[in-house]
Amino acid sequence: MDRELLISAIIDHAALYHGDTEIVSVNTSGGINRYGYADCRARSLKLASALKKKGMQKPDRIGTLAWNNHRHLELYYGVSGSGLVCHTLNPRLHPDQVIYIMNHAEDRVLFFDKTFLPLVAAVKDQLKSTGSFVLMEASDEEVSAEYPWIEFYEDLIADGDDDYTWPDDLNERDASSLCYTSGTTGNPKGVLYSHRSTLIHAMMSATPDVMNFSAQDCLLPVVPMFHVNAWGTPYAAPLVGSKMVMPGPGLDGKSLVDLFNSEKVTISAGVPTIWAGLLAHLEASGEKLPHLTRTVVGGSACPPAMINKFRDLYDVEVLHAWGMTELSPLGSVNNLKNKHLGMPESDIIKLRENQGRPPFGIELGVFDDDDNQLPNDGVAQGNLYCRGYWVLTEYFSGDGGDPLHSGWFPTGDVSTIDADGYMTIRDRSKDIIKSGGEWISTVDLENLAVSHPDIAEAAVISARHEKWDERPLLIVVPKAGKTPDPAEILKFYDGKVAKFWIPDAVQFVESIPKGATGKMLKNALRDLYGDVLLAK
Fold this sequence. Notes:
The protein is built from 18 helices and 24 strands. With 536 residues, it is of the alpha/beta class.
């Protein structure tokens, strides 16, 4: 039968065959909500109906500023299932970037958790298309008195019709969700996903050689739902009927360990910085993880010591993964092959350190600077390109130019690939910094630095950091006769960028090395100062 591949089919299947499988949600305002997939579907349909009554039409964008919770999951299905576009926003961005992204996306409605009420109040008057602001809570008279422009999620749900059905005129190539990437210089770019690409991505994510989800599992996605749709896990888990535990805002080690153990979580996913905090709590408390069997680690390189600690101390398998917003985000996951099972343990440990191999649906290749493809021999190092069923063809609204080279998407990474497809990222072809899974633009930091009255030139490089993998280091040439104070320079960034963007330290130099075209040689700077923060 020829049936459209629609996101609504996922929650329909979960409700029909896993209706009483639990979704456990830690609420932003406290307490825990428990219900099943059948309840989630019913509320998603009422939400879709309520949005239709508000005049939303395909393909209007609906923004979210929210943690991982059951209401956010309902938005994933109620918005996309009704033909609208679910646009997840990263609340960790600077307010100016939030404003730019929402105006660029032309979001009609914004749903947000109470944590982000101050941010929403600060930006709302600068949003050109957003006419409704919905707090993801029950009605609150105190909030209404102070913020009369706020609507409430539970009131909106109550306004939906019980007999609403998914529209029958959707095409699998219709837009379903929208994420913006700040992994390049300049303004953030939008990546628009289709129902088809999302469903295929979810099906492959659940397979044994990727994340290996099943109805026997209990998933706790630590990766936020505003980070490339939590790596697709809110689609892959219902697809197979996994129990889901949504951790809400509490992502500290103790809160996570309590949830892992009380809810008997078997699989999780998140960035290395979160796992570092969890491991620190485990070491301090002496607690174990008796139910957790595996976790997917991505967003930035997973330190080998972390992989070893999870395996040796807690019997947890770490699946090292790599992806990008432009890839929905799955690009590769490190799982063994049959031929590896008899290898010496030391060789297996070494093999598990790379970023893994692509699943069906993704092809990876390394290319030289003239776009000639290099061999997959584990030695030839080149620019990493990819293509596949869930890779973008263009950025939202066509901004940013054509992202493809001869049908391939250049990822901006420099890598090697061996004969079995195992990919190792060797370097980044651009100087963007990835700190704890979050991108930081060196150009924006440099432009602000040179606007300081005492600074003649400035460069920002990624310096190695024990906790965050990378942190920005500001390298400064002072103006003649000036001796600026490092603390005062760093304070200069306050209010101009997100707090986590502010460099960790200032390094004063007499000059910045440049190439023949006048460009700063950041590789040379990294060689000189890349370990400065480790020394500190």
